[in-house]
Amino acid sequence: MNLKVHDRFEETFTVSDHIYEGFISMFRDKNPLHTDERFAIEQGFNGRVMHGNILNGFLSYFIGECLPVKNVIIHTQSIQFKNPIYLNNKVFFEGVVTNIFESVNAIEFKFSFKNEQLKEVAKGKIQIGLLI
Amino acid sequence: MEFNEILERVQDVFRDVLENEDIVLTSQTTANDVEDWDSLNHIQLVVAIEKDFKIRFTSHEIQSWKNVGKMVDCIVKKKA
Fold first, then answer.
1. CB 3.0–4.6 Å: which of A37, A65, B4, B65 could bond B70 by disulfide?
2. Which CATH architecture has domain A8-14+52-130?
3. What is the ipTM of this complex?
């Protein structure tokens, strides 16, 4: 196994127009919090709040493309959303290996996403399996 | 830790992971006896047991388990 506990990975993502429009186009979540600037501001936000599940797309990219192994599958994941993200925000991702279960070829990570002010926007855990 | 004490704790883990409070484990219980104990849930059960008991199994140990009793025997040895 190429990974060990405390291994750390970092990525930077941008919630671009392309991603935002693509998400809405694919999943059709046009809730006004995400699409109506005025509505979102009335709810106390600074503008349209990006869909939290866009971050799950970044997580998928991390697991599928950024690890030193490609024979991976996601077993479980959990995420808590802490703060809003807005269009064109950069988010800084950090994933750390917290547990390795060699008996069943499973690896657990904790992860967080921070905004440009280094405020946590989401955090969680993800467990992957290595396919043999 | 004694066999029955561990069996009870393993049962709690099974109930939690498989979200079924009706699960009752005995030494003779196998995957065929427990609804939803499939290969993917087996991974989650092993992970949860390793975390709960703060132990690590080997793949060889896991493959040698023929029933819950053998699993508990293995935990007993590690906790001795």
1. B65
2. Roll (3.10)
3. 0.87
**Cross-chain residue pair B46–A127, CB shorter than 8 Å:** no
- Using one digit for the tens of pLDDT, what is the confidence trace for B31-46? 999 999 999 999 999 9
Residue of B nearest to A129 (CA): B43
Domain ranges of chain B: 3-79
Given a contact cutoff of 8 angstroms between Cβ atoms, the answer to whether B40 and A129 are in contact is no
Q: HEC profile for chain B? A: CCHHHHHHHHHHHHHHHCCCCCCCCCCCCCHHHCCCCCHHHHHHHHHHHHHHHCCCCCHHHHHHCCCHHHHHHHHHHHHC
Please tell me the distance from the alpha carbon of residue A18 to that of residue B33, in angstroms, as a whole number: 50
Q: Is A102 within 8 Å of chain B by CB?
A: yes
Least confident among A1-5, A71-75, A89-93, B26-30: A1-5
Asked if A77 is an interface residue toward chain B (Cβ–Cβ < 8 A), one would say no
Please name the residue ranges forming H helices in chain A: 17-27, 32-35, 37-42, 53-61
Is 3.40.50.300 the CATH number for B3-79?
Answer: no
Question: Rounded to an integer, what distance in angstroms lies between the CA atom of residue B75 and that of residue B6?
Answer: 8
